[in-house]
């Protein structure tokens, strides 16, 4: 069932066993007061592929804020592939992003997430992210990042990088590489901190999945 | 028993305790190799780095220690605390470094405070904050003392390592550490009441992970981590 709100999901042609959905903005996104909520529930022998047809820009919010919440539940072998396009937080934007994923036995997910602070030539607004992933009853990954101006530019957080690009696999691992984080449980994060999204090599990591 | 918790806290915070504290830089060495401090021209970045850590990864450590202390006092199995810490520590290099340190602490603590071995295996590779939390439980440290110890130790590790890595005046280093006191108190206050593994903060620091991964593969280095 696909429902339209701020985003309009559209079913694309796909082979048997694959449900391919494109996310298209139904209007201007993301503005002060917007609360985007995306729920994905899949059970059984199905592969859900989500594609975004364009990046998203969170615009200046003049004291307001916006949310982008993703909630995924996969069970009985269902899998998810979600290639996110750049999520750009413009100067003056104030955004909270949360991703909550529950994986049952035999299920797996792969996600691309490119967070970009500022459009070309600007420093970018405030972004806080919360990721919570459970594999069965066990926490697999819990991470909160505060990427607000004044919090993010130090040598522990992002330095002078403006893009945090990541390919995250859950329920299975990426091949070993120095800059691939191998979680304690079955999962990996390949992360790149780069000046500009197009200089990240994660497109190749994604293509090799 | 004759142990004063305050003396225990002083002992645990003392780099002369044989737990290998001098082999640690809390990620400062790889950060300096990448440019932190600009060859001595931006030494203030050392204090900023310690402050960033206390708001992020050290909060995870302190939270895990406080919850481990609570679990040990309640007679609960510590595995869920270790798992929660691991889910909040995505870098395998940093988990391994913490467990190497935990092993050193445990080897010491098992002889100094044998009660620790009622909760943890003497030869176990257990995350350092879990071991510290159990030591705190056995020796009568309060939750806030345990958290403060973790916060202080991390800041002191950064500052002390900076003396070996950059042209730092030791008195400046002491000033940075003192300037971090309010930050350490805030951290201790934020986690002192935690009792459940799911409540442990999960504040990430992406560059700390990047440097941790890089450093594990490095051959020429002064510090293990």
From TrEMBL, chain A:
Keywords: Chaperone
Entry annotated with the keyword Chaperone: yes
Pfam families (alphabetical): UreD
InterPro entries in alphabetical order: UreD (IPR002669)
Keyword Chaperone: yes
Gene Ontology molecular function: any one: nickel cation binding
Listed name of the protein: Urease accessory protein
Lineage, uppermost ranks: Bacteria, Bacillati, Actinomycetota, Actinomycetes, Propionibacteriales
UniProtKB/TrEMBL annotation, chain B:
InterPro entries: UreF, UreF_sf
Signal peptide (UniProt feature, chain positions): none
Highest taxon listed in the record's lineage: Bacteria
One Pfam short name: UreF
GO molecular function: nickel cation binding
rRNA processing in keyword set: no
Protein name listed in UniProt: Urease accessory protein
């Amino acid at each position: 069932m696909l429902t339209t709100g701020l985003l309009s999901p559209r079913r694309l042609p796909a082979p048997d066993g694959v449900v391919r959905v494109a996310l298209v903005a139904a209007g201007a996104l993301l503005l002060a007061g917007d609360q985007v909520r995306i729920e994905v529930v899949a059970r059984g022998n199905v592969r859900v592929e989500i594609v975004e047809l364009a990046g998203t820009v969170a615009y200046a919010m003049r004291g307001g804020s916006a949310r982008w919440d993703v909630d995924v539940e996969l069970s009985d072998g269902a899998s998810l592939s979600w290639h996110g396009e750049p999520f750009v937080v413009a100067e003056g934007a104030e955004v909270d992003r949360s991703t909550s994923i529950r994986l049952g036995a035999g299920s797996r997910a792969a996600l691309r997430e490119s967070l970009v602070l500022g459009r070309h030539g600007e420093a970018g607004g405030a972004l806080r992210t919360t990721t919570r992933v459970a594999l069965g009853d066990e926490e697999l990954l819990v991470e909160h990042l505060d990427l607000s101006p004044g919090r993010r530019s130090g040598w522990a957080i992002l330095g002078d990088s403006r893009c945090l690009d990541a390919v995250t696999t859950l329920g299975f691992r990426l091949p070993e590489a120095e800059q691939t984080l191998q979680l304690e449980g079955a999962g990996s994060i390949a992360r790149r901190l780069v000046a500009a999204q197009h200089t990240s090599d994660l497109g190749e990591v994604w293509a090799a999945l | 028993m004759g142990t004063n918790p305050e003396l225990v806290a002083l002992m645990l915070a003392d780099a002369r305790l044989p737990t290998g504290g001098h082999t640690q830089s809390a990620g400062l060495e790889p950060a300096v190799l990448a440019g932190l401090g600009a060859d001595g021209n931006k030494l203030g970045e050392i204090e900023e780095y310690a402050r960033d850590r206390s708001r992020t990864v050290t909060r995870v450590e302190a939270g895990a220690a406080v919850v481990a202390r609570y679990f040990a006092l309640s007679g609960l199995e510590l595995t869920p605390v270790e798992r929660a810490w691991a889910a909040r520590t995505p870098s395998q290099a940093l988990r391994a470094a913490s467990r190497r340190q935990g092993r050193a602490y445990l080897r010491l603590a098992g002889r100094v405070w044998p009660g620790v071995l009622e909760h943890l295996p003497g030869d176990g590779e257990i995350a350092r904050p879990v071991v510290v939390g159990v030591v705190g439980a056995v020796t009568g440290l309060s939750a806030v003392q345990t958290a403060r110890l973790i916060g202080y130790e991390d800041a002191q590790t950064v500052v002390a390592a900076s003396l070996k890595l950059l042209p730092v005046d030791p008195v400046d280093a002491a000033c940075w550490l003192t300037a971090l006191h309010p930050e350490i108190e805030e951290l201790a206050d934020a986690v002192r009441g935690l009792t459940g593994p799911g409540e442990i903060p999960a504040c990430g620091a992406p560059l700390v992970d990047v440097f941790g991964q890089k450093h594990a593969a490095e051959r020429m280095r002064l510090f293990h981590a």
